[in-house]
Write a structure and sequence with these properties.
3 copies of one chain form a homotrimer. In chain A, 24% of the residues lie in helices and 38% in strands. Chain A is an alpha+beta fold. In chain A, strand 5 and strand 6 form a beta hairpin. The radius of gyration of chain A is 16 Å and the shape is elongated. Chain A has 3 helices and 8 strands. Chains in contact: A-B, A-C, B-C. Chains A and C meet through strand 3, strand 4, helix 2 and strand 5 of A and strand 3, helix 3 and strand 8 of C.
Chain lengths: 136, 136, 136
């Protein structure tokens, strides 16, 4: 069986944000066993899973990724949408738009320390749409 | 229900290439709702999703990824298949071999600006095989 | 149909490790056609697919990823779990926790040179849990 909904996230500031509870609030009751596929319909934001406790991890994600793909490099050619745009595309591709998370006993089977991140790479990304597909 | 086909892409030059229409042309009719899983059977090419309009984005992908994982670093040990080989493995792993894309109303439910990229990291990668699995 | 098991990997040293045979040994008989989803329940280890033959590829993965995300950068703030911890989180997010691999003719439909990697980014990561979900 397949269930599918579209989730609209409110605009988040640039950075890494825990969105588990926002996502779970909008999902239907989960099946006993299955997979939840999350897919973000954008090219300058991404979905990841990482540490859900200490906010300093998410701060370091933002600064390390900025260091890895800096803005305003001389050799960039796609520059007319702002200095944050092309780095955002690269970061989004490195992290990826999709996650497939196992469902067990009616719940997302994440590890103790795992949370779902919205990775917002634009200064003003606006609302973001995620398609959630559950198969069981 | 599961349907599965193998798609052979023609040899593309090194770089980032939009392959949506090539993929969709070879797929069977899509179900109303489901997931399309794409999996590339290679270790020096990858699949990604990003901006489908301005070709300068794809040019910058190529140059930024080359800058991130340069060729000919002194400390590389796996060098006998050419200077583009080991960087291609790393890039392929960073971007990843698989994508799971939602299907809605009989179509791939991509965002307006999203297209599927073949990321060809070898100078002469040759034909590339993708397994496409649709479940509904 | 969905089948799901949890696999516990023994503690591996920091680095990249082929785990195909370990995974396949613990899986039930595979269906004729389907998908295997693998999901690692940790935030400082990841799953990838890459070259299964020459061990020097896996050695270079370790050194290139260490070069990409170095330890002990001055600007890191999440430092109290050891110098390998924050880089491990970033690497895990870049590579990703999940893989969806096609099953064809009762076998994982990997390319000739593809193997499944456990990417252990901690010095002492301990045992690692993977949820394997097969749908067919």
């Amino acid at each position: 069986m397949i269930q599918q909904i579209e989730i609209t996230l409110p605009a988040y500031p640039r950075g890494y944000h825990l969105i588990d509870s926002e996502i779970e609030r909008q999902l239907p009751n989960l099946p006993g066993v299955g997979i939840l596929n999350l897919f973000i319909k954008h090219t300058s934001a991404a979905l990841s899973i990482n540490e859900n406790a200490d906010p300093s991890v998410r701060d370091d994600f933002e600064s390390i990724m900025n260091n890895l793909v800096p803005e305003n490099e001389d050799y960039y050619t796609h520059v007319f949408e702002g200095s944050d745009d092309m780095p955002a595309h690269i970061k989004a591709s490195l992290i990826g738009p999709d996650l497939s998370i196992p469902i067990s006993k009616g719940r997302l089977n994440l590890g103790t320390w795992q949370g779902v991140y919205l990775c917002e790479f634009r200064n003003r990304g606006g609302k973001r749409k995620i398609v959630a597909t559950i198969y069981s």
